[in-house]
Amino acid sequence: MNLILGAILLLAPQQPSGSSPFGSVELFGTACSAASGASAEIRSRSQPYLGQALEFDVFGSAASPSPVDRISLFWGPQAQTWSNLKLPLDLAFAGMPGCFLSVGPGGHAVRSSPAAFFSWAIPADASLLGMETFIQAAVSFDTGETVTTRAIKARLGWDPLEWNGLSPALAVSRKAGVAPLSVFFDATGTVSEQEPDAFHHLTYHWDFGDPGSKRPSSSGPLAAHVFESPGLYRVRMDVAAGDGASQRALVEILVQDPDEVFSGTKTICFSNTSGFAGAPAGARLVTTSSFDSALGHYASGRRLLFRRGDRFTSSGIYIKGEGDGIIGAFGPGVGKDARGIYSNNPLVICNGTGPLNVQGSGFRIMDLQFEDPSRTVEHVFNADRRLVKSLLLRLKSTGFRVPVLISQDVIKFFGSDPHSENTIADCFTSRPRINGYYISGHQLAVLGNRVERCEVSHLVRVTYADRCVIDGNELYYPGTTRLALKLHAHQEKARYGRYSQRIVIRRNDVRASTGWIIVIGPRDDASNEELREILVERNTIVAEGVASQAIRLNCQDATIRNNVFLDRGNSGYSFRCVWVSKYGIEPAPSGIEIYHNTLHNSVSRSNAYMAEVYGHVNGPAVVKNNLVWAPRAQNSSVMAGGSAADTAGNMAAVDPRFMNPGGGDFRLQANSPAIGAGVSLPVLDDFAGNLRPWDGRGTAVGAFER
Q1: How far is the CA of 221 from the CAs of 197, 495, 500, in angstroms?
Q2: How far is the C-alpha of 151 from the C-alpha of 77, rounded, in Å?
Q3: By the 8 A CB rule, do 530 and 499 touch?
Q4: Cβ-contact 137, 73 below 8 angstroms
Q5: Which of 52, 418, 439, 572 is close enough to 406 for a disulfide, judged by CB 3.0 to 4.6 Å?
Q6: Do residues 38 and 82 touch, judged by C-beta distance below 8 A?
Q7: Which DSSP category does 682 fall into?
Q8: What is the dihedral of CA 38, 601, 635, 703, to 10 degrees?
Q9: Which helix (H) or strand (E) holds 74?
Q10: CA atoms within 13 Å, Cβ hemisphere of 568
Q11: Positions of E strands within 241-294
Q12: Beta strands at 53-60 and 317-330: parallel, antiparallel or unpaired
């Protein structure tokens, strides 16, 4: 029985003059229906102002259209007041049998099958100001099934800083601009009295208010999103701590219509056949087969569109701009793939240095295909100096030495600020000769791309990043002995004070047959490069061939959590999911946390380990609630022998009873010994976004809570 509890209308209360409104209280709960044991969730968000009416809409899911029979809200000064109540209750005494219960201040409900409406009023009683309360919700269906939340703590009042010690911060790279608009979201300024390490130990959930997009939500202290349609978007960030306390921050993003911003002759359309069907009304029309000649028209405040189905040629051109501009496609598209790339997008046949060499800000380059038939062209996109607030969207390339180059070398050469607020989204890069992406910058986002089959070196190499999101990408098969992802830092740290820091790597599908797959550390043992504040979560990493290490950490303050590691390599080799070590002259690793990961091995191995801490580290790595199931390995354990670590709650060499490991489903069956076997940790959700117990006790071992 799935359940949605949401669409809450928060009515503005009368507040004392000069007061600040509360952040949100959030009821998160996971329970099983009494009848079938099927999982369900309740999410109820409220702002407990004195004198305020809170209004909830409750819906049974389309898959389970059973009418809602009863909505219950339990409210009291102690959590145990309601924890042992048997549900459902006989509510006839409340005057609305079968529909309503409010133990506490008062309320009313209206039944409208299969949905229900519930309203709860908090008394405008000054004596309640600052009162600490516990709130719990329950919903019953006509079938007799009931789901409930866990009780959580809230405090009544107006001052958010007095409420629960959790003060959210939400910074955005920009609040307005023309579509497609890429926005970087930063919650790293959030403060929690309970969890001083807010980057690693709080749980963040983002709703971009864009349900039609490929990535309508995200998690982690940093996020990025591309708004492709005009409109006003209300972005919501919810942050929660381990005691169930939560707060909400909101921001509105205004996205302008490109047909209005680039109306009339501000748009120039290009065709090599004089066919201009589908061109925007009033656009200037130019017939040419030269991509370079067309780009000669580029300027800020202009939109250059190339006809789908046409071919153009390029030997390279240098363009500059300060302000919004678009280079894209027009005309009907066919053969749309999962990334939104049409098979008939304009095709640019390249020679020389490469088609796009840019400097400035506001570039939006989208919906184009590039080929390198001679195998001699350097780049598709090259930002050799300053690049700001720019977006590469749905570009497809085959070949090229380094298709996307946004190099941090600009800092060293020009002594200038690094590239900033740039995004690469939903692009497809195949068979690059050296690197797929060689990139760097501040507020850098890499979203939903596929980079595959590099001939020589790394698929993605991030040479410097300060606040970076690498989310939802497919990174398949780097060059021999190289990496799917290499993340290191700036060599000019002493001169410019640069560190690679505050980086979120999440939801990526990574596959490699090389020795190492992901390395987070200096480029070599002679580079004193520092990396810190790294979060790696919800990734699937598949080790094939001779792969012996999935993630190598030579850094500080890294959390590896809720990842699935699949060992599919050659027999005879030992395999480690996470290797922690000091590489060279950089500072020794410290602050390493390896939580709630799953390793599944399906090939003959000599050894299979979750982690190994090798060499000098500052303080032990913390390795807890990890699950290792390697039935075909001669030896398997959570830690390699002799590793220095703080371990607890791990499980190895015990069949966890996965749902369907052969089919890639590593959720736990109801009778799994991993359920409830974990120890308390500040990890409040799992690989799939399901909630873990708020206090961490009784959580499941591994990447999945259920």
Answers
A1: 11, 29, 16
A2: 11
A3: yes
A4: yes
A5: 439
A6: no
A7: S
A8: -40
A9: strand 68-76
A10: 15
A11: 246-256, 267-271, 284-287
A12: unpaired
| Residue whose token pair is 């090939």 | 603
Contact 482, 473 (CB under 8 A): no
Contacts of 674 (CB under 8 A, 6+ apart): 627, 651, 656, 657, 668, 700, 701, 702
Q: Strand 450-452 vs strand 474-476: parallel, antiparallel, or unpaired?
A: parallel
Q: CA gyration radius for the chain?
A: 27
CA distances from 461 to 49, 379, 488 (A): 49, 15, 8
Write b or e for each residue in 441-465: b if 16 or more Cβ atoms lie within 10 A of its Cβ, otherwise e: bbbbbbbbbbbbebeebbbbbbbbb
Q: Which residues of the chain have pLDDT under 50?
A: 1-47, 51-68, 77-121, 149-152, 157-163
Q: Which is it for the CA torsion 581, 468, 365, 339, positive or negative?
A: positive
Please give the Cα distance from 662 to 671 (Å, whole number): 19
Residue 339 CA neighbour count, 13 Å, CB half = 26
**Nearest residue to 128 (alpha-carbon basis) of 154, 151, 108:** 154
Contact 443, 332 (CB under 8 A): no
| Sign of the alpha-carbon torsion through 668, 673, 674, 675 | positive
Give 591-625 as a 3 state SS string: EEEEECCEEEECCCEEEEEEEEEECCCECCEEEEC
Q: What is the pLDDT of residues 242-287, one digit of tens each?
A: 776 778 888 889 999 999 999 999 999 999 998 999 999 999 999 9
The residue behind tokens 């990447």 is 703
Decide if 441 contacts 498 (C-beta within 8 A).
no
pLDDT tens digits along 593-619: 999 999 999 888 888 999 998 877 888
Contact of 460 with 439, CB cutoff 8 Å: yes
β pairing state of 246-256 and 231-240: antiparallel
First to last CA, the chain: 15
For residue 433 the two structure tokens come to: 């000769």
Q: Which distant-in-sequence residues (6+ apart) come within 8 Å of 587 by Cβ? A: 530, 556, 618
Structure tokens given for 578: 């996470």
Residue 229 in 3-state DSSP? coil
Q: Which two tokens stand for residue 460?
A: 């993605």
Structure tokens, 293: 């000649």
Side-chain half-sphere exposure of 134, counting CA atoms within 13 A: 14
Q: Are 154 and 135 in contact (CB under 8 A)?
A: yes
pLDDT of residue 143: 60
What is the per-residue pLDDT across 364-383, written as a single tens digit (0 to 9) for each? 999 999 999 999 999 999 99
Measured CA to CA, the distance from residue 118 to residue 54 in angstroms comes to 8
d(CA 522, CA 69): 60
Q: What is the DSSP letter of 264?
A: G
Cα–Cα dist 93/101, whole Å: 9
Give the residues across from 136 on adjacent strands: 74
Instruction: Record the tokens describing residue 105, joined without a space.
Output: 């201040």
Which of 125, 138, 118 lies closest to 33 in space, CA to CA? 138
Instruction: Measure Cα distances from 101 to 40, 59, 260 in Å.
Output: 21, 17, 52
List Cβ neighbours of 17 (8 Å cut-off, separation of 6 or more): none
Q: Which residues contact 397 (CB under 8 A, 6 or more apart)?
A: 369, 370, 371, 372, 380, 403, 427, 428, 429, 430, 432
